[in-house]
Design a protein that fits this description.
The chain is mostly helical and about 70 residues long. Helices cover about 95% and strands about 0% of the residues. It starts with a helix and ends with a helix.
């Protein structure tokens, strides 16, 4: 009887450990997804800034070429 009780406790502890590991894995996956979303957003910001800079350079070149003419 005593051994059966010990086995049940061990099984319960193992189940709790497995649940904790699953929760940790889920949290890690969520964090990775958030990081990917942030990276995608930052990539979009970089693209927008690059386009704005390119447009500014083109405008500057156009203005300087028309000022001389």
């Amino acid at each position: 009887m005593e051994r059966a009780g010990e086995r049940e406790e061990e099984e319960e502890e193992e189940e709790e450990e497995e649940e904790e590991e699953e929760e940790e894995e889920e949290e890690e996956e969520e964090e990775e997804e958030e990081e990917e979303e942030e990276d995608a957003h930052l990539g979009g910001v970089v693209d927008a800034l690059t386009m704005a800079n390119t447009s500014a350079q083109l405008l500057e070149n156009w203005e300087s070429s028309n000022a001389g003419g």
